[in-house]
Each structure stands twice: as structure tokens, then as C-alpha cells.
Amino acid sequence: xxxxxxxxxxxxxxxxxxxxxxxLIAGPVSAVPTTDPVAKAxxxxxxxxxxxxxxxxxxxxxxxxxxxxxxxxxxxxxLELRRYFLAERELKRVMGGAADPAVLxxxxxxxxxxxxxxQKFVEAEEIRRKFGAAEKGDxxxxxxxxxxxxxxxxxxxxxxxxxxxxxxxAGLTPTDPEPRVASARIRMKTKDYDGAxxxxxxxxxxxxxxxxxxxEARRAVSRLKTTRYMDEGTGAxxxxxxxxxxAYMKKFVxxxxxxYDGRVLLANALYRAGDFAAALAEAKTAEGMKSAPKESxxxxxxxxxxxxxxxxxxxxxxxxxxxxxxxxxxxxGLGDSHTENGSFDAGIAAYEKSVAxxxxxxxx
Length: 364
What we know:
The protein has 21 helices and no strands. The chain is mostly helical.
């Protein structure tokens, strides 16, 4: 079943195929003058033979320089050959001289493809803005123009502008979930969780006959909430706001009780907050969720040492080192525990290892 929190290829970079649906390129291209060489060239292109088509059109244009339909077709032939420089040159000549709106629209579509296939997103944005300004069709066509613009804005990481473009598309087609889903995906990427949830809730409220879309939106909202707890908890932990980290990670664990990393992060937050007994309990719970749970053993060791159970702590630090021999926190904890037990030589040896591995210090 489709995951609405994941990007689709069309939502990320709608190619010329999406624009064809909107601007009907087949019509304008088919409407070029049916002079015999041009008709032959078009037939060759349709048969995936663009090279001889380009030769025919080049010869024809040498005597008929002002035939914009033929030059448009030559640009298409070069595009199929992936000779982008030549395709762009010919299409720009059409743009500079043609007056027929159908030919100009088809030229813009092909220029868009020239730029998108080369990932020239700035140039593609300019083309798609021209589409949006020129489109006078129904709401559905105008919405597609906004969606096409949004995707190329996203490719340039202009996320706010992309969301605005999807919002414009959604306003024109209020029963179409796709612009809302695309907007939610960007907002999730930029950690605008409230905005993403609002987009998905709008999808749920559409009462679409496609019940799968609403069901996926509900699941997306649930995932977003837990993702937010994890991100906020991790951020609070790194910032030293241990109370906030504990609060967020408790919410995460309540939603995902079998998530090993979530349990470990909660245990770490509790340890940093000074609640060693609670941290130990969470670390023990995490231990049963993974084979060789070195992160859990490390936090248990740190907690046992704080609770004055140094012999148990030493055993746990050694188990951690057995799985992660360059873990600086484990070597430090082992050194502290041996020293507190009066085993100074063993403590010094552990500290020496800690100093040697300092550059490889992991996060707990």
C-alpha cells in the first residue's frame, strides 16, 4: 500500500509526461505544416528514428528558414538524440519568432524537458512560471501548472515557495489529495510538523471515494506525531534540556513501545537528568529488544556505577567493550569503576584506552 509520507517520482520531478497531460503537446506538434519532408520527419520521430528526421528537417529549413513548425520538430529530434545544446538553440529560435499559441506552448514543453533532463532547475523554473502565467484553461489545468512549478522549486530546495505553489494547486482542485500530500511531504522534510499534519488532515476531511487515500493519511498523521517526538527529544538531549528530552521520549515510547533506539534515548535522557533508577529500568527493557545491545549495556553500566554497584558496572562496561572496543564512554566508565574499587592499575589502563580512542567517541 502506498506510503503518503514518501515522495513519488512524479511529485518530486514531474517530467514532460505530466506537462503533456496538461498542455497537450501531441496536438501542437501534430499540427505542424504537412509539407512532405516535415511529415516524413515527424513519422520518423514517432518511429524512434530522430537522427534521419533531424537530417531531413535541417535540409528543409535551409530553404524554409521561417517555418517555425518544422524548427520546433527539429528541436524535438535533437532532444530525442540528447543533443541538448542544439535542441535548446532551435527551440529558442522558435520562441523568438513564432506567434501561434499552440506552437509556443509546445516549444515551452520541450524546453522544459531539455532543462529537466539536464537538471537545470533554474531554467526549468523560468519555463514553468511562463506556463503558469500563460495558462488560461480550467482549474485542473491551472492546478497542474502550479504543481509542475512546485516540483522544480523543491528541486532547488526553495521549500517555502514549493509549499505555496502546492497550496495554490490545492485551492484550485480542493478534492484532489495529491497537492496536499506533496505539501505535507515537504513540510515533514523541513520539520514543519504542524503544517504537515494540517495537510494530511485536510486530505482526511475530503471524504474521498478512494478510502485508501484517507486511511494512508491517518497513518501518516500517526507517524508524523511519533517522528516529531523523536526529533524533538533528540534535539532537547543534544541541547542539554534533559527534562524536555525525557518528556518527548516518554511520548515516543508510549506510541512505539518496542522501538529499541527510542528506549535507549529515553534511558539516556533519564540518566542525564539524574534519574538513575528509571534510566536503568528503561535500559534493561531495551536490552531484550536487540541481540548484543551494547548501547543498553553502556547505559546500564553508567547507572549501576552511579548507584554504587561498581562490580555490576564493571561487568556491563566489559560487555560493551566486547562489542564496541573503541567506545570511549565505556573505557571511561570502566576506569572510574576500577578506581572507585581501589584497582588503580586497572583504572589507569582503562583511562589510557579512553585517551587513545578519544577521536572515535560515539554518541550513546
